[in-house]
Design a protein that fits this description.
The complex is a heterodimer of chains A (404) and B (214). Chain A is mainly α. Chain A has 14 helices and two strands, in the order ααααααααββαααααα. In chain A, a hairpin with a 2-residue loop joins β1 and β2. With 214 residues, chain B is of the alpha+beta class. Chain B folds into two domains: 110 residues, Alpha-Beta Plaits; 43 residues. Chain B has eight helices and eight strands. In chain B, α6 packs antiparallel against α7 and α7 runs antiparallel to α8. The radius of gyration of chain B is 27 Å and the shape is elongated. Classes of the chains: A mainly alpha (404), B alpha+beta (214).
Chain lengths: 404, 214
C-alpha cells in the first residue's frame, strides 16, 4: 500500500530527468542505506519533503495574499522586509514565536493545547494522498479520495475543540458557526467529487489524473472541459471556499462580530499554527480540486509535455490560491441564513442534478449530442434555480419578527 | 442570472489590481521614511513655547499666568511662577515661568492652551518624530525643550505667525506711543505748564500705531 514515489519511468533524456528529479534524488539517497532501512527512510524523506514544501508555500501564499489584497485596494502591501517584502512571513513567524502564549484560566488546558495540533496534523495527512507529480504520491491509496475527505472532515473536530475549550462566548459561537458551515458544505463538496469518480470509475487519485492525461488535437481531457465537470468544478470551488472558512464564507471568524471566532483565545505560536493549518488546508483542497478537475500534474497543452509535472501541479495550486485571494478581495461576508440557504437550496440540489447529468454523459456515448443535452440541462437548471429559487423572499432583506 | 454581480465585482477588483501596476497615481501611499510630503499649514500635534530674539530664556513670551495649566483638559502642563520679573516684548516687567513642563504622553493635542493664551506664547508644533527609549523622562518636556524661536513658528505656520506678529507689533506701537505721551506729558509737566509742540505730537503717533494692526 505504501508504495512511495515508485519510479517506473525509464531515464531517457533531459526531460525525464527533470520530471523525475526528486524521485531520482530520493532513490540515490536511499541507495546508500542498508536494505532493511530503505523502506522507512524512503517514507521519512517524503514526509520531510512535504513538511518543508507546504509551509514554504504557505509563506508564499500569505505574501501573495497581502500583496494581492493591497493591490486590489490600490496600496503597495508589505515592502520592507527583503526584496518586495518577500521575507515578511519570516518576520511574522519570528514575531509569533516570541509572543507570550496565553491560556485562559478557565480553559480546558489539554484540549486547548490539542486543538491546533490536531488541525495541523489532520491537514498534513490529507496531503499525503495527493499526486504532486508523475510518480510523486506519498501514499497511493486505492481509496485516496475517501481518505482525503475523512481527514478533511476531521478539521471540524479541531475547530470545535478550540471553541469549546476556550470557555469564551465568541470562541464557542465561532466554533458552532464553523461546524454548522463545514458540515453543510461537506455534502456538496463530496457530491461534486462523486461525479468525477463516476466517470473515472476509481477513487484512486492517481488513476483520476491518469484518466485526464490524454490529449485530442493537442487539447487536454480535463474534467473541467466537460459540461458536468465545469458545473461540478464551480460547485466544488464554492464548497471548498466555505470548507476552508475563506471570505465570503468566513463567518466563523467574522472579525466584526466574533473578534476572531474559534481562535479568539489563542496567541503566539498556537495562533500561528491555526493560521498555518488554515492555509495548508486551502493548499490541500486546491490540490484536490486540481487533481479532480484541472488534470492534476498534466500539462494544459500536449506540446508543453516536456515541462516537469510537479511544476504544473504546484502552478495550478498557486493559481487556485490566487483566485481565492481575488474572491476575498471582492466579496463581502455572507449572513448565516444566506449561507445555509445557499448550501441547502442551491449548491446541494445542483450537485445532485450534476450527478444525474454525469451519469447521462457516461451512457450517451461519444458524439456531439451529449454535449448539447448536458449543457442545456445544466444551464437551464442554473438559470431556473438561480433566478427563481435564490431570488425568493429568503434571500432578500432580513425581516425582523420581534415586537417593535 | 445568479453570479452576475460576483463577476462584475471580480472585474472591478481585477481592474484595480492591474491598474495599480500601470498607473502610479493610483497608489496614494507615501513611502514615509524615504519620501515625505510637506505638512499642511493647519497641522498640529504638541504645543511649544515661542521666544523672540536669540536667547530663548530672555525671549520667552510666557508670563506664567497659568491659564493654560488650568484649562488643560488632561492636565499635562505644570508651571512654576518665578519670584522675580523680566521685561516682556513691550518692556513691561512680567513674571516668567521658572518651570514649564508638558507631558506629551498625556497631551491630547486639543489646542485649548493655544486658544486661551492671551500672550501668544504657546503654539502648536508640527514635529511628529518624537519617539524615545525613555517613556517617562523622555516624554516629559521642560521649558528648554519646549522653547522654539519665532522663526520656527513662521516656518511651520506662516499665515498665523504673520498675523500674530502684526498684532504684537501693533500693541507694541500702541504701548510705545502711550509711553511717549506719558513721557512727554511728564516732561511737559516738569518743563512748563503749556507747550504746543508736544501737544501736536500726540495725534501723529496714534494713527501710525493703528496702521500696523491687521
Amino acid at each position: 500500500m505504501i508504495a512511495t514515489f515508485v519510479t517506473q519511468a525509464p531515464m531517457t533524456g533531459m526531460t525525464e530527468t527533470a520530471d523525475q528529479i526528486f524521485v531520482l534524488l530520493k532513490h540515490w539517497v536511499v541507495g546508500y542505506l542498508p536494505v532493511g532501512l530503505q523502506g522507512i527512510a524512503s517514507v521519512l524523506i517524503s514526509v520531510v519533503a512535504i513538511i518543508a514544501v507546504f509551509p514554504t508555500l504557505f509563506a508564499l501564499a500569505v505574501w501573495m495574499e497581502r500583496k494581492g489584497l493591497a493591490r486590489i485596494q490600490n496600496r503597495r502591501g508589505p515592502n520592507r522586509v527583503g526584496p518586495f517584502g518577500l521575507l515578511q512571513p519570516i518576520a511574522d513567524g519570528i514575531k509569533s514565536l516570541t509572543k507570550e502564549d496565553i491560556v485562559p484560566l478557565s480553559a480546558d488546558a489539554v484540549v486547548h493545547f490539542m486543538a491546533p495540533v490536531v488541525l495541523v496534523v489532520v491537514v498534513f495527512m490529507g496531503i499525503a494522498v495527493l499526486p504532486m507529480g508523475r510518480n510523486m504520491t506519498l501514499v497511493s491509496m486505492d481509496a485516496g479520495l475517501l481518505f482525503f475527505f475523512a481527514m478533511g472532515a476531521s478539521t471540524e473536530l479541531s475547530v470545535f475543540m478550540a471553541g469549546w475549550s476556550s470557555r469564551n462566548k465568541y470562541s464557542l459561537l465561532g466554533a458552532m458557526r464553523g461546524v454548522a458551515q463545514m458540515i453543510s458544505y461537506e455534502v456538496p463538496l463530496l457530491m461534486s467529487s462523486v461525479a468525477v469518480v463516476m466517470i473515472t470509475g476509481s477513487l484512486s487519485l492517481d488513476k483520476i489524473v491518469e484518466a485526464q492525461n490524454k490529449y485530442t488535437w493537442g487539447l487536454p481531457h480535463w474534467n473541467i472541459f466537460t459540461p458536468w465537470g465545469l458545473a461540478a468544478f464551480v460547485m466544488y470551488a464554492v464548497a471548498a471556499t466555505a470548507e476552508t472558512n475563506r471570505s465570503p464564507f468566513d463567518l466563523p471568524e467574522g472579525e466584526s462580530e466574533l473578534v476572531a471566532g474559534y481562535f479568539t483565545e489563542y496567541s503566539g505560536f498556537k495562533f500561528a499554527l491555526f493560521f498555518l493549518g488554515e492555509y495548508v488546508g486551502m493548499l490541500s483542497i486546491s490540490g484536490l480540486g486540481t487533481t479532480l478537475f484541472l488534470g492534476g500534474w498534466s500539462a494544459p497543452f500536449a506540446f508543453l509535455g516536456w515541462v516537469p509535472s510537479w511544476i504544473w501541479f504546484f502552478g495550478k495550486v498557486m493559481l487556485s490560491i490566487a483566485v481565492f485571494i481575488w474572491v476575498r478581495g471582492t466579496l463581502p461576508r455572507l449572513r448565516q441564513d444566506q449561507l445555509m440557504n445557499f448550501a441547502w437550496k442551491f449548491v446541494l440540489p445542483f450537485t445532485l442534478l450534476d450527478l444525474m447529468v454525469a451519469a447521462a454523459w457516461r451512457f450517451m456515448g461519444d458524439g456531439w449530442v451529449r454535449w448539447v443535452v448536458c449543457s442545456a440541462v445544466l444551464l437551464g437548471a442554473y438559470a431556473l434555480m438561480g433566478g427563481v429559487g435564490m431570488r425568493g423572499e429568503h434571500f432578500g432583506r432580513r425581516k425582523y419578527r420581534y415586537a417593535e | 442570472m445568479l453570479g452576475e454581480g460576483i463577476l462584475k465585482g471580480l472585474a472591478e477588483t481585477g481592474k484595480n489590481f492591474l491598474g495599480s501596476f500601470v498607473s502610479a497615481d493610483r497608489l496614494t501611499t507615501v513611502q514615509y521614511p524615504e519620501e515625505r510630503i510637506a505638512p499642511i499649514e493647519a497641522t498640529r500635534d504638541f504645543p511649544f513655547l515661542v521666544y523672540d530674539g536669540g536667547d530663548w530664556e530672555a525671549g520667552l513670551r510666557c508670563v506664567a499666568c497659568q491659564i493654560c495649566e488650568k484649562e488643560c483638559p488632561p492636565k499635562c502642563i505644570y508651571i512654576v511662577k518665578s519670584v522675580d520679573k523680566k521685561p516682556d516684548y513691550v518692556g513691561k516687567p512680567q513674571f516668567y515661568p521658572s518651570r514649564f513642563d508638558i507631558d506629551i504622553s498625556v497631551c491630547m493635542s486639543c489646542q485649548i492652551c493655544v486658544e486661551v493664551c492671551p500672550f501668544e506664547a504657546i503654539k502648536m508644533d508640527t514635529e511628529f518624530e518624537l519617539s524615545t527609549t525613555d517613556r517617562f523622562g523622555g516624554l516629559l518636556y521642560d521649558r528648554k525643550e519646549l522653547a522654539k524661536s519665532n522663526e520656527h513658528y513662521h516656518k511651520i505656520h506662516p499665515t498665523e505667525a504673520t498675523e500674530v506678529d502684526a498684532r504684537l507689533a501693533g500693541e507694541k506701537a500702541k504701548a510705545d506711543a502711550k509711553a511717549k505721551v506719558a513721557a512727554t506729558a511728564a516732561a511737559a509737566k516738569v518743563a512748563a505748564p503749556v507747550k504746543p509742540a508736544a501737544a501736536a505730537a500726540i495725534p501723529e503717533a496714534k494713527p501710525a500705531g493703528e496702521e500696523t494692526r491687521p
